[in-house]
Amino acid sequence: MSARMFPVPGRHKGRVYVITGGAQGIGRACAERFAAEGARVMIADIDPAGAEVAEAVGGAFTRTDMSDPEQVRGLAEAAVAHFGRIDIWHNNAFAAVFKPIHEQTLEEFDTITGVGIRGYWMGAKVAVEQMRAQGGKGVILNTASVQSFVGEKGFSAYQATKGAVLALTRSLAIDHAPDIRAVALAPGLIATDAIKGIPEDVMQGVLADIPAGRAAEPAEVAALAAFIASDEADYMSGTAVILDGAYLAIG
Ligand SMILES: NC(=O)c1ccc[n+]([C@@H]2O[C@H](COP(=O)([O-])OP(=O)(O)OC[C@H]3O[C@@H](n4cnc5c(N)ncnc54)[C@H](O)[C@@H]3O)[C@@H](O)[C@H]2O)c1
Question: Is 247 known to be catalytic?
Fold first, then answer.
């Protein structure tokens, strides 16, 4: 990793942070970062391994399939039962089968959008309901992607979800300002299991298009998420923050 990490002690002290897809990758790094900054962390994932992450960060785990609206509601209820409130809700889980549309099945489309659109919308809905009931401020983070802005070959349904994430973020920000902020976080290439399947020769081509010449570590995304959710970023809402090693700058 080229970047050095400096968690800000106490920046999220006492806040309740719900992270979906927290069992590994970016979600896990975010769970670790927010816990290091004092948050009480509720991890949601379809993978029971999320329980180990919860134990490691002193948080709690609720096994949740984000494509099932009842389970998403159950996640919010579990967070409130456990910690009493929800201050930051981070939609981050994704299920993807990367294919062009002529090779993709409708079932795969439903799985991908079930998590990446319906799951994000339902997560935002239960978060907003709870934040309004608390009568206080709140932040909704939505993990988007550079593919929210540019096309890449072979990602039809996934790219549709990432475009939708931006539109949802704008809508949330407008409807609930100034109490609730909504911000999309758009990573470029991040070194998680999600990119492990990319063949070495393809990866060399991908890296050649990234001026930074490397994938970022999940902890670098987490550092940005912790800033976006902080009071210092109180004027930031309805927008997307890109972390891509200048990938989009090439055009
Ligand atoms: N890794 C990258 O290069 C990259 C780039 C841009 C955007 N992103 C975005 O970052 C986010 C996290 O990606 P990652 O790279 O950490 O992926 P990852 O595969 O490492 O982690 C995804 C997590 O989501 C969980 N998940 C899958 N289906 C679920 C469901 N139905 N309900 C609940 N949890 C479910 C998985 O179990 C896993 O723990 C995603 O939204 C992804 O689109 C990643």
Answer: no
